[in-house]
Amino acid sequence: MNQQQGVQMRGKRGKKPIRPGTILGKAVAYLVMGIFAFMTIYPLVWLFFSSFKTTTEFRTNMMGLPIDWTLENYRSAWKIGEFDKLIGNSVLYTLGSTVGITFLSLLTGFAFAKIKSKATGPIYGSFIIGILLTIQSLMVPLFLEVTSIDRGIGDFLRSLGLVGSGEFRLFHNTRFGVLIIYIGSALPVGIYMCTEYIRGIPSAIIEAAQIDGAGYFRIFRSIIVGMSKPIAMTLSILNIPSLWNEFALINILVSETNLKSLPLGIYKFSGGLSSDYGKQFAALVIGMLPMLLFYIAFRKQITAGVSMGALKE
Amino acid sequence: MNGTATKAAKDRRAYWAMVLPSFLIYLFVFGFPIVLAIVLSLSNYGGGKMFGGTSWGITGFRQYQRLFADPYFWNALKNNIYIVLVSVLGQLPLGFIFAYLIYRKTVKFEEFWQGVLYVPAMISTIVVGILWSIIFSPYGPIADTANHYYASAYSAKISGIFQTTGGLSDPDELTDQIIKASPSTINTVFSDPSVDLKDFLLSYEPGDTATLQKDLVNLLAPRWNADFLSKNNVAMIPICFVTLWMWVGTYLLIFLANMQKIDRGIIEAAQIDGASEMQIMGRVVLPSLSKVIANSAILCISGSLSGFALILAMTGGGPARVTQVLSIYMYDKAFMGAPDYPLANAIAIMIVLFSLALVGIMFALERRFGGKE
Amino acid sequence: MKKKICSALMFLVILSMGAYAQKTTLTVFDYIDATAPGYAENEAIWQRFIDENPDITIVKEELSNEPFHQKLAAYVAAGTLPDVMYMYPSGRSTMLHEQKLVKDLAPLLGKDYLANFIPSVTDPSGQKGKYLAELPQSISYTTVMFTNTKLLSDLGLRVPSTYAELKAMLPKLKAKGIRPVLMANKDDWVMQSCLFSTIVGRMLGDEWIDNALAGKVKFTDKEFIKALDFVETMYKDGVIGRDTIQISYGEAPALFAEGKAAFFIDGDWRQNAFLTDPSSGKALIDPKRQQTDFEYFNFPAIPGEKNPGVASAVLGCGYGISASIPAGSDKEKAAVRLLKYLYSADVQRQYLELGRYITSRKDVKSDKLEPFTVKMAAYHDAVKKTCYVLDGALDTSIYTPLNLGLQQIGLGTKTPTQVAQSVQAAVDAWRASH
């Protein structure tokens, strides 16, 4: 109402349409955004160059380019952080959970969207609540849950004589546990996105397939998976960076070095171990490089995906 | 193939086969921990075996009483609210304005801005946290640059004073002038400046004014106030800044994509009618994005409650707990020093309630003010 | 049918992922800083044990500083304690002692074996649980004033013997851009362990602490507030900069080595940070300068002190064996074998040479020590009387507000009286529950 009146009044007065942005406005816009872009990029560039300085040089020449370029920082950071052990885990956790999340989200989303059931209301609703919760807030009970379950099962199997005196591990300090919890933490958003997407697929296609005698699993396999490629892509693209960078959960789920992921290795370089800036910077670069490359490679898809259903860690 | 009953049963089986795995995992990761947190927050569980170990039982709301009596809980909550405010009132408006500037082609190079401003969201929060903690540290680049600047400014002042007063030939005048020139620092070095500083000046050889001047700069030049980041009310500023830094790009992308879905015709019509840029933004673009903005706000709130890794890497909640947020406070109680699981679980429940309350407020606001799609 | 096979397979996969070991596997939780000099050598020491004992598999986890304590507390809570762990005689490891989660080492190692160590470390009364829960590798002196004597003499200054002398040096030091006393106060335990304990020992004495815990005196009494006042005075005088609260534990040694401070206060273990790293051949302070330019001193005399020359010291850390290992089992034997290896004269000599600590084993001698290590042994001898390290003498629930309060005094956000009140409140709560 108001809006139309306003526009009409202007129209009656017959003012000339104003071109978007006067010169001054443009200058201010460029300046503000330029400052922001600078603040985004400069620290990262600075970090990159500083990672080639020795600690001594960093102290005396903090802002300039390195005078003696050295790769020594990378060599020792790689060794201290034991990144060779961690990279593989990071890849496994990221890809494994991404596949799991995408598959389960499509499957469950399909059931919610296209199979009529009274259970959909409450169950789907409970997943929606999950979107609003931050899994981090549950890290203490989650930790107690996984350790207690492991212990309980271990004691039980031991009483049956099925396992030896060793520690029994199922969820705590296992790759399996990390994968399950990563999958679970991303399911609410994934199921929400997939359900909404699959709802948009015409039911007529499914009904036609049913008349041909296809069961729901076959429909899922032969029709839904194919038609849901865009949403599957979006979901994966969104999940990969957040899973790769995940810290809070794996920090409590895993304590053995050979099960840790990259962010845990980098965390070693904070606080207590920060005596050596050179190594620390190198570790930070190692930590951010994979996802920057991923970003460069998939920028288009990431941009599109974020605007569809932005996820935040 | 006989009858609808079998088909219905088959459908039901398919439905559950598709839903159950996800639902069980979901219950394992979200549902059960919440129940466990509620139970433990009402108990005196002291660690160890949960079943069959040392016995523990329900003791009521004692933990919550303890929590509400603890000033550090309120401090953490306050810090959380700061972050939420900066997120909702900083990230969203900035993201919106930037998106709008790009959308209206006020600034060119759309791809560049999008590409660059989203970069921080791709970097691990641990990396971001450590990086910025170095930048803000008393030996970091900010302090370094500022101190260089202060020192050269003060150095110019001192050499001016030496010229006008004739240096050590008139020590009383020199002392007076230096005291006047260094109001902020003089008392931190000398308890009785007019006497002590004069003694200090006279301890130098009269010919060695170059060294003396240099030493005076070291001694009395103002310095980048490194401890400002440890004071109660400012300590959160770097953290809030970095939060903003990380997420503005995300909202820029979300808003821009949704602006591009707006029918160009409406905007052109408004322009022909003579609407100003502000009017187009306020009356055309903003209302058509109201739903997106509300959803983003919800996203923003739940995101801002998960600043755990960032703060852990930046400050660890210190110094003296001034930068603790609820999640760090909870982590502290559970994993640092003697574990206090009941209290930590009570905090977990408080975080859950806090986030649900905020989201509830958002929904209410949206219903009240938004809704024009 | 297919489905059943599938689920059976799934079950098998899950079971195999929840792997367990039948062979003698020892899980070890070790305290080591991966960036510290000598890290590679330490790994080699462990590798040798692994090579010599093919029947034992070692699964080792390493952390240091705060994350170590956090993790250990988590293990205790979850009841998943590692088989062998590095631990403190009290302080942060109190729960291991009090809940008797680790075994008594005295019968396991045997009298003859323990006779190799100086008597004070094998005396169980020094440990929280009053039994030999861990065998201390050393005695730790927690207050050492690392002093850059070269820097002082270049400025015509001499080592201060009183606090007033220390304070009088400030203008001269600051004029050269040198900070007087460096401490890594970002971690809140540092002020308490490395300086305040000695202040309390000097001004009040151990007996006073015992009385306070018995309820005979209160932390809100004037004497204790005076000790806190002294901390505030040091900050106010600028002897310790308030910005030290931003300096992390790892950062400080490099600053001191670069000559950015005349004095550096930390525990005796910190000498290790300055020594030559065998893997790179580099040292923060090279041995020649260690010999000529630096010395260790006790903190200067404090105004109003009753016990001059006292410095805080505590039994060192060592390894303990989880009590959940069945007595007489292969695992127990393996754990004992590991401990006997770690405490052997040979390994202890290597640790001494790496500068990790001054070993408590009597039969260890070496001529390959760097000057800082030799000087540390001399410093130990020079301190004639020791006092409590407060986080060893007080319960966690009591020293937590104390640590925090000392930091708040540094920030200027709490007064000594307020801090004393919060400590006394913690004491009252602790006494009520004991």
From TrEMBL, chain A:
Q: Keywords on this record?
A: Cell membrane, Membrane, Transmembrane, Transmembrane helix, Transport
**Protein name as annotated:** ABC-type transporter, integral membrane subunit
Compartments, record wording? Cell membrane
Source species of the chain: uncultured spirochete
Any one GO CC term of the record: plasma membrane
Bilayer topology: Multi-pass membrane protein
Q: Does the keyword Transport apply?
A: yes
Q: Which residue intervals define the domain ABC transmembrane type-1 in the entry? A: 87-298
**What are the TM regions of this chain, as residue ranges?**
21-49, 91-112, 124-144, 176-195, 281-298
UniProt keyword annotation of Nucleotide-binding present = no
Q: Which family does it belong to?
A: Belongs to the binding-protein-dependent transport system permease family.
Q: Which GO terms describe its biological process?
A: transmembrane transport
Q: Indicate the principal place this protein occupies in or around the cell.
A: membrane
Automatic annotation (TrEMBL), chain B:
Say which family it is in: Belongs to the binding-protein-dependent transport system permease family.
Residues of the ABC transmembrane type-1 domain: 77-362
Origin organism lineage: Bacteria, Pseudomonadati, Spirochaetota, Spirochaetia, Spirochaetales
Ribosomal protein listed as a keyword = no
| Main location group | membrane
Q: Which GO terms describe its biological process?
A: transmembrane transport
Q: Species name for this entry? A: uncultured spirochete
Segments traversing the membrane = 15-40, 81-103, 115-135, 234-257, 292-314, 343-365
Keywords from UniProt, A to Z, are: Cell membrane, Membrane, Transmembrane, Transmembrane helix, Transport
Q: Describe its membrane topology.
A: Multi-pass membrane protein
Cellular component GO terms, alphabetical: plasma membrane
List the PROSITE patterns hit by this protein, alphabetically.
Answer: ABC_TM1
Indicate yes or no for the key word Cell membrane. Answer: yes
Instruction: Please give the InterPro entries that the UniProt record associates with this protein.
Output: MetI-like, MetI-like_sf, UgpAE/MalFG_permease
- List locations, semicolon-separated: Cell membrane
Q: What is this protein called?
A: ABC-type transporter, integral membrane subunit
One Pfam family name from the record?
BPD_transp_1
UniProtKB/TrEMBL annotation, chain C:
Q: Which UniProt keywords apply?
A: Signal
Question: Is S-adenosyl-L-methionine one of the keywords UniProt gives this record?
Answer: no
So which residues are the signal peptide here? 1-21
Question: Which superkingdom, per the lineage?
Answer: Bacteria
The record's annotation in Gene3D superfamilies points to: Periplasmic binding protein-like II
Question: Which is a Pfam family this sequence falls into?
Answer: SBP_bac_1
Q: Where in the cell is it found?
A: Periplasm
Q: Which InterPro entries match?
A: Bact_solute-bd_prot1, SBP
This protein's GO cellular component annotations are: periplasmic space
Q: What is its main location?
A: periplasm
The family line of this record is: Belongs to the bacterial solute-binding protein 1 family.
Q: What is this protein called?
A: Extracellular solute-binding protein family 1
